[in-house]
Every structure is written in structure tokens, then in C-alpha cells.
Write a structure and sequence with these properties.
Length: 314
């Protein structure tokens, strides 16, 4: 995500995304000579060895596209709590402690409580789901997540009839998350879904990937996954789930309301104000590919937005 402060950036100074991306790629490639080996060594050998997910569609929600490598998925991240470069989350999240962990459920719900993570997920069977993920910046990944459908959790928590939205909050721990010591985003990171979006069978709470526990840089120990929305909806390291009546604030909307809306559905026909959303670069590939409406999940999600102007509700 690109941070822009209106007050101190003249419009002539704003770098188009394509140039920005190329420059970042160049810096990344250049610095790989210097730090590549060091960065690699923070991952246990057993995980680095298991760099391929078995091919093929296993469940009804899986894409049959080729899965990205474990290394791609765990070293090319956005997690601003650990810094703004793609390599920062894997390099700076080593001190973060995702255990023990609690999730607080509050608001319009019949069973508000603070749960230990183990108790929170114990009632459900963990599933593996291979999802296409599209970042608003124009890159994409295919990730084999492990987790539980959010709908199952919500049914068990019993929201009241007043609950129209679900709000999520990331942990605030500036001692372990160096990015939180700087005010480039409003901390803690917050996100939200409309209730029908939260209940959609695709909506997932991930606790792992590649069949392993979620690495810190990917949002350990529990994060949201909504594959038809831009990646920033997928809030990481969740400590609070609140059922609310009104549309909750979301971090990127607070930061740049004309660029990031509440819905954030992947839509090749609605450009970001500073760049096109028509194509994307799959990490690991050279040529760009066309971005699909709702990231290819239209069949499962389009009906939720019937009659809505998706240019206004971006
Ligand atoms: N959650 C928090 N708390 N902080 C963040 O900076 N970045 C978002 C999202 N969740 C972010 C976050 C963005 S912009 C993206 S693209 C995805 O996480 C990236 O997830 P990944 O690194 O696991 O691929």
C-alpha cells in the first residue's frame, strides 16, 4: 500500500505506481545480493524445504491454479506493523509473540467473551483452502490457507438482530511491532465486513498456511481472508471481533478515503485514482495477467452486491 500525506506531497511529486513498483523491485533485487542469505536463514530448514503444495483442487472452494512457493508467500508481505517494505514483515517480526493469544468478542452478540485462541477454534474442523489473493497494488499470489469458515464461528457466537456489520481489530504492541511506533497509519489496524459478507462461505479465518501454523509475517496467529476483496481487507493478528449496527471504520479508508473504500471488492473496471486495476502480476511470473471481476469469485459473491453502484461503493 502506498502512503500519501496530502498535506506534504505535491501532486507533481507522486510517483505513478508502475514506476514505484519498478524502483522497489530494483532495490529489492539489488539488496538481495547483500542480505539474501541472512534473510533466508531466519526460516527453519524444514519449512524452506517444503516449498511446494501438492497440485490440484481438493475442495469446492479451491482454485486449481498453481500455488505460490512458501518462500514467495512468506517473504513478499504487507504488514505495516513491521515496516512498509515487502521484506520488512519477514525480517522484523521475529520478536513478535503470537502465543499465548486471546480473541475478545463483543458488541451485538449473545455470547460476548474473551477466548483463548485454542478454545476459540477448538469447536471447528480445520480446512485447507487454496485461494487467489489480489493486492490493491497490482500483484497477486495463490495461497493454501488453513483455517475455519467465519460463518461457523459467527453462528456459534449468536449475534443479535441489531448486528449488521462485523468489525475486526489487530493487536497493538509497539514493543514488538516497530511500525506501530510511527504514526504512518492509525493504530491499531481495523477492518470490517457487512454481515452477509462475513457469513459468505468463502470468508475464512486463517490460522495456518502450507499446512503449518501461520508465520508471524502473514498475520499469526489468526487473520481474516476474503479472496474476492483486495488484500488489505485481510486484517492480520486479530484480537477483537465486534458485532455492530453501523458500518465500522477501516484503516485504509481513514488514511485515504478517496482511494480505499469500505467494500474494496476486486474490480478491473474501477481504477484506483492513481493506477489501473485491469491487470496484475502474479508473484513469480513475468507477464501480467488480466484481473478478474471479484478476483474470479463472482459466482459466489456477485449476488451480495446486486443493484449496488460499484463505482460509488468501491
Ligand atoms: N493487517 C494488518 N494488521 N496490517 C497490515 O499492514 N496489510 C494488508 C493485509 N492485512 C495489513 C494487514 C495488506 S495491504 C495485504 S495485501 C495483506 O494483508 C497481505 O497479506 P500477506 O502478507 O499474508 O500476503
Amino acid at each position: 500500500m502506498l502512503i500519501k500525506r496530502k498535506e506534504d506531497i505535491a501532486s507533481s511529486e507522486i510517483t505513478p505506481e508502475s514506476l514505484y513498483f519498478n524502483r522497489r523491485e530494483f532495490i529489492r533485487a539489488a539488496s538481495a545480493f547483500g542480505v539474501g542469505l541472512a534473510a533466508r536463514s531466519i526460516f527453519p530448514e524444514s519449512l524452506m524445504a517444503q516449498d511446494k503444495w501438492p497440485k490440484g483442487k481438493k475442495g469446492p472452494y479451491d482454485t486449481d491454479e498453481e500455488v505460490n512457493s512458501y518462500k514467495d508467500i512468506t517473504t513478499y508481505n504487507n504488514f505495516y506493523e513491521f515496516g512498509t517494505d515487502k521484506s520488512d514483515p519477514s525480517q522484523n517480526s521475529g520478536r513478535f509473540k503470537p502465543k499465548p493469544w486471546t480473541v475478545k468478542v463483543e458488541g451485538e452478540v449473545k455470547k460476548p467473551a474473551t477466548y483463548n485462541l485454542e478454545d476459540f477454534i477448538k469447536p471447528y474442523k480445520l480446512e485447507d483452502r487454496i485461494y487467489r489473493m489480489r493486492c490493491v497494488e497490482g500483484w497477486s499470489l495463490v495461497i493454501p490457507w488453513r483455517g475455519i469458515p467465519l460463518a461457523d464461528v459467527i453462528k456459534k457466537l449468536e449475534p443479535t438482530s441489531k448486528a449488521k456489520y462485523v468489525a475486526f481489530e489487530t493487536i497493538f504492541r509497539p514493543d514488538e511491532m516497530e511500525g506501530q511506533r510511527r504514526p504512518y497509519l492509525n493504530w491499531p489496524y481495523v477492518e470490517g465486513l457487512r454481515m452477509d459478507e462475513a457469513m459468505n462461505p468463502l470468508t475464512f479465518l486463517a490460522v495456518g498456511l502450507y499446512g503449518k501454523e501461520l508465520p508471524n509475517q502473514n498475520g499469526a496467529p489468526i487473520r481474516l481472508v476474503t479472496p474476492w476483496k483486495y488484500g488489505f481487507k485481510g486484517i492480520k493478528s486479530i484480537v477483537k471481533i465486534r458485532f455492530v449496527e453501523k458500518e465500522p471504520p477501516t484503516t485504509w479508508n481513514i488514511s485515504a478515503p478517496n482511494e480505499y473504500g469500505f467494500y474494496s471488492n476486486v474490480n478491473p473496471d474501477v481504477d484506483h485514482p492513481r493506477w489501473s486495476q485491469k491487470t496484475e502480476r502474479r508473484i513469480g511470473e513475468f507477464l501480467k495477467r488480466k484481473t478478474l471481476m471479484f478476483n474470479g469469485y463472482a459466482e459466489q459473491v456477485a449476488s451480495m452486491y446486486a443493484g449496488m453502484d460499484l463505482k460509488k461503493n468501491y
